[in-house]
Amino acid sequence: MSDEQTCVDFPGEEIDVRWDSRLCIHVGECGKAKGDLFVGGREPWCLPDAVTKAEVREVVERCPSGALTYRDKSGEPESPPTENRLMIASDGPYYLTGDIQIENAPDDMPGVRTRAAICRCGASKNKPFCDGSHEGAGFRDGGAVGDRGRGLQSTGGPVVVRSIKDGPVQVEGKLTIQAGSGRVAWQGENVFLCRCGASKNKPFCDGSHAAAGFKSD
């Protein structure tokens, strides 16, 4: 599929916005933002010049999947947060923010370098990314976390996301995991997370992917 078919650009005087349909899971952070940057039913849907450049950056960076990105014409890129954090959405994906390096991610998905929604139900057709399939699959998990991890002496730095074939997703680097309740629950530097939806020890992998016949392709 070509870039023109999957991405839509919205040019502005000082800053451009791009929407990538491959990553959008319709959380609605953009449409519910106050102001006239994004207005449903309007053509074009996004008008970067309707608000300040600072507002464009702030609203676009709310997008948890990386489907929305911007190109600031001053050359200032989006900066990753100082802490790598993975939030477990109740009945939904892992929302990861930080200095992200997703192995084998396409080069034309710049949004996932700081923000990504990672599938944890096993049903996505766009693995490792969430595509909203958890709703139709009836996936249920509130995002409770039992283990505390080894802890961290510092935060930040790159975090590498590696999809193990027919198995879990490995996250290597300094990471804080936030439970579905909002609680900071786990901290460490290497973790294997369930992405088949079958683990009895969610969010952690317990090997259930083998018995479940999970296929990552």
UniProtKB/TrEMBL annotation:
Coiled-coil segments on the chain, per record: none
One term of GO molecular function: 2 iron, 2 sulfur cluster binding
Residue stretches making up the Iron-binding zinc finger CDGSH type domain: 104-140, 166-215
Keywords in alphabetical order: 2Fe-2S, Iron, Iron-sulfur, Metal-binding
GO cellular component terms given for this protein: cytoplasm
Top-rank taxon, per record: Bacteria
Pfam families cross-referenced by the UniProt entry: Fer4_19, zf-CDGSH
PANTHER family assigned to the protein according to its UniProt record, in alphabetical order: CDGSH IRON SULFUR DOMAIN PROTEIN HOMOLOG, CDGSH IRON-SULFUR DOMAIN-CONTAINING PROTEIN 3, MITOCHONDRIAL
Protein name: Iron-binding zinc finger CDGSH type domain-containing protein
